[in-house]
Hints:
By secondary structure, the chain is mainly alpha-helical. It has 3 domains: 4-82, no CATH class; 96-199, CBS-domain; 202-324, no CATH class. It contains 12 helices and 8 strands. The protein has helices spanning 4-16, 26-32, 40-53, 109-119, 139-147, 171-181, 199-227, 233-239, 257-264, 267-271, 279-296, 306-324, and strands spanning 24-25, 55-58, 69-74, 123-127, 133-138, 164-166, 183-187, 193-198. The strands form 3 sheets. It has a 3-stranded antiparallel beta sheet. Strands 6-7-8 form a 3-stranded mixed beta sheet. Strand 4 and strand 5 (133-138) form a beta hairpin. It is flat and about 80 Å long. The N and C termini lie far apart (59 Å).
Amino acid sequence: MTTPEERLSQIAEELAKGVTPERTTVRQLLAWFEVSRRGSYVNWRIRRALEKAGLETLPDFEVAYIDGPVKFTLAGAEVEAGSISATYRIDGLESANRKPLSVKPDSLLAEATTLMLTNDFSQLPVMTTEREVKGMVSWKSIGSRLTLGKGCAVVRECMDQAQIINAETSLFEAIDIIAQHDYVLIQAQDRTICGIVTASDLSQQFRDLAEPFLLIGEIENFVRRLIHGKFSKKELMEAADPSDADRTVEGVADLTFGEYVRLLDKEENWNRLRLPVDRRHLISRLNRVREIRNDVMHFDPQGVDPAALQELQKFARFLQELRRLGVLYK
C-alpha cells in the first residue's frame, strides 16, 4: 500500500519531469493521511510531508474549500500569471462552490419570483450560458421599478448589473462587496459561475466560526476568575512554561491556557480552590478544551468539528451551572 509520503514523492518526481499531475481535492488529500478533517496536528503532519517532498498546494490546503481542487507545485516555483496569493479566499466557502440557479433575460418575471419564493432567495443571476451573466434580478430591483411605475413583464426589464468576482479573491475584499450589494457571484478560472455568496451565507459562516472562539473565551474567563487572587506571583511563575524563562508573569492573565491546567493539576493548588468537583475529571476536560483551542486557532472554513463544538458547549454550561449554584467563586 502506497503511503501518503510516497504518493507525494511520486508527484514531485512527475513535476520535476514536466508532467502535470492530476488535481485532487482537499478531502482526497486528507484521505491519503486517513483523516477526514483538518486540525492543528493534521495540518502539521501534511505540511511536514509536503515540505519533505518539496511540494506546495495552490490554493493552500489549510484554507481551501474541502471539496475544492488543489494543485501541487514544486516548492518555490513561480506562481502562474493571474493567480492571486490571498491566504483566505472566497472560494474557501461552501456556497462559493455551489452552482446557483438562474433565469434567462426573456424569462417571465413570474418564473423568477416563483424560484425566489420557493427557495427563499433574495436574488437570482440572469444568464444565457454558464459563463454569460447579463444581470441580477432581486426583490430590490423588482420593487424599485414597480414603485416607479415601470413594467416588469420579463426579467430583463427589472434586472440590475451583476457583481462578479474571481474565485481567488480575498475573503476580506469580498466581504466589502457583499456588505454593499448583499451578494457576489463567484467566477471560476474557466470563467464559469461556480457559486454565489450572499450576506446570509456570510452571516451563517461567521456564526459557525465565531461560536467556538466565544465559548473558549467564556471558559478561559471562568478559569481566570477561579484562579485570581488565590496564588502568589511566584506560584504563577512556577506554572509558566520553563522553556520561556524570559517571560514576565505579573498575574493570571499572563498565563496561557495550558499553564492554567499545569497550575491546577497540582493537588495542593487544587485544594486551595475548595471546589466540590472531581479534580481529575475537571483537569481532563480542561485539557480537552486546550486541544480544541489549538485547532480553533487554526482558521478552517469548515469550522470546528461538530463533536468538539458540542464538548465546548457542554463544558461552558457546566461552568455556568457551578456559577449559578454559587460554588465556582468562593
